[in-house]
Design goal:
This protein is mainly beta and 338 residues long. It starts with 51 loop residues before the first strand and ends with a strand. Strand 8 (132-135) and strand 9 (141-144) form a beta hairpin. The chain has strands spanning 52-56, 61-65, 72-76, 82-87, 93-97, 106-110, 119-122, 132-135, 141-144, 149-152, 162-164, 173-176, 182-186, 189-193, 202-204, 209-214, 220-224, 229-233, 242-244, 251-256, 262-266, 272-276, 285-288, 292-297, 303-307, 313-316, 325-327, 333-336. The strands form seven sheets. A four-stranded antiparallel β-sheet has the order 3-2-1-28, with no helix packed on it. The protein is 0% helix and 38% strand.
């Protein structure tokens, strides 16, 4: 996080890799439409800001909840078996629809507040399982399977603009800093790319990496499930400067809020979410909750905790440790409308 957090030296081995093989061949796609990116002023419903979108694969629907409520206010039903969600900064929603009977994996795109898609990317039947969908700061859409990440520009969905080949094994997440630099976390560690490049500039060796996220200062926080710690890396470095172990046990997911506080979901021992101030390596709050594996912080600071085994989503107010709301729904993924 901040320099004051990065004060403890570590005896952790890391590996820097030079640029390796070029990108894999572009995936064929039958992307429909080449609609330009909607501008924020064109929002159909400004009240959609802060709405929670939940992918419920078992119900074949994306559920929409207004902030602070547990009642469904809307549904997206034209993306069967939704498993991953992501919003662009301009409010475009991407929904990854996993392969169903006689269907290929497909990413459906929705303009702000819409519940009917305006375009889609149809992927080959051998694409496999969706691991990630994510937008970078320039609203480029990244789609990942187990070992490769593909990038699509919204004004040209006919083919990937970029392919990050062999980006990892069992990819877990794709994150971006404010400049668009990319961190791909996987079972192999974290592969690092400069914005727009298909060749990694570095590699962070980490045991069973479950997540990695940039904070506001472009420090990279890496959740090492296998070592029960979160390691902190300064910008443009593969050498860690600090680690967080206090309160961390088998970390599964990370989040950073507007104050640059770090949230860590742990599923080992006593399941919990621990919260660390920007200048701390010991938690300032500990939220006891079973099976947390997804974290999303809303613009108002509310923390949404997604859980395994179709357990309800718990919602925590800033500064609190007890949920003020439980949302009874299965949740394969969740995202907040910007």
């Amino acid at each position: 996080m901040s320099l004051s957090r990065l004060c403890a030296a570590l005896a952790v081995v890391t590996l820097w890799l030079p640029a390796c093989s070029s990108a894999t061949a572009a995936l064929p796609s039958s992307g429909s439409g080449a609609a330009g990116l909607p501008k924020p002023a064109l929002r159909a419903d400004a009240s959609a800001k802060g709405d929670l979108y939940v992918a419920d694969r078992s119900a074949n629907v994306v559920k929409i909840y207004a902030p602070g409520t547990a009642s469904v206010k809307g549904r997206i039903s034209d993306a069967p078996a939704p498993v991953r969600l992501a919003f662009s900064q301009h409010g475009v929603l991407a929904v990854a629809s996993q392969k169903a009977a006689r269907r290929s994996p497909t990413v459906f795109l929705y303009k702000p507040s819409a519940t009917t898609s305006y375009a889609k990317i149809v992927l080959p039947s051998d694409f496999g399982s969706f691991r990630v969908v994510a937008f970078d700061p320039n609203d480029v859409l990244y789609v990942a399977n187990d070992d490769t990440v593909y990038a699509y520009k919204l004004d040209d969905l006919t083919k990937p603009a970029l392919a990050l080949g062999k980006a990892g094994t069992s990819i877990r997440n794709v994150r971006f800093d404010a400049a668009g630099d990319i961190a791909v976390s996987s079972g192999d560690g974290v592969e690092l790319y400069k914005a727009g490049s298909d060749k990694p500039w570095g590699h962070i060796s980490a045991l069973e990496t479950r997540d990695a996220i940039y904070d506001a200062g472009a420090y990279l926080c890496v959740a090492e499930y296998g070592k029960s710690r979160v390691s902190i890396f300064p910008p443009n470095s593969t050498s860690p400067s600090a680690e967080i172990t206090d309160g961390v046990n088998r970390p599964d997911a990370l989040a950073v809020d507007a104050k640059n506080d770090l949230y860590v979901a742990s599923s080992g021992g006593e399941h919990r979410v621990t919260v660390y101030d920007e200048n701390a390596t010991s938690p300032t709050r500990t939220i006891t909750v079973s099976w947390p594996d997804r974290l999303v912080v809303a613009p108002n600071g509310d923390l949404y905790i997604g859980r395994r085994y179709d357990l309800p989503i718990e919602v925590i107010k800033p500064g609190q440790i007890e949920p003020f709301l439980s949302i009874a729904t299965a949740s394969d993924d969740m995202a907040i409308a910007p």
